[in-house]
């Protein structure tokens, strides 16, 4: 365990697990997220569900690849390249708005 992990665990123990995310500036319920990435609620829902299907497919392929390493050795690299193309536009939208990473509470 690293020193940073130890400090975080100690902080969570002191303030309570329920209060820790808001005290360290993590917004677990970012209701503006779909808008932040330039999507409506339903287009974000469709995108997220399709990504989960892609992720489940790659999970199955990599599980079999782990058992039989000489098959599908290129599949994961292709998955990462394709995922970057799919997620890229949302990432750029969020980057342009410069809303990502702003603390939700005063950190001073």
Rg result: 19 Å
Q: Strand content of the residues, in percent?
A: under 5%
Low-pLDDT residue intervals, each spanning 5 or more residues:
103-108
User: Could you give the distance between the termini?
Assistant: 27 Å
Order of helices and strands: HHHHH
Give a short account of the largest sheet.
none
Which range best describes the helical content: under 10%, 10-25%, 25-40%, 40-55%, 55-70% or over 70%?
Answer: 55-70%
**Structural category:** mainly alpha
Describe the structure.
This protein is an all-alpha fold. It folds into two domains: 1-29, no CATH class; 31-97. The protein has five helices and no strands. It has helices at 3-15, 20-23, 33-36, 41-67, 75-97. Helix 4 packs antiparallel against helix 5. The protein is flat. Residues 103-108 have low confidence and may be disordered.
Task: Spell out the blueprint of helices and strands.
Elements: H1 3-15, H2 20-23, H3 33-36, H4 41-67, H5 75-97
Helix pairs in contact: 4-5
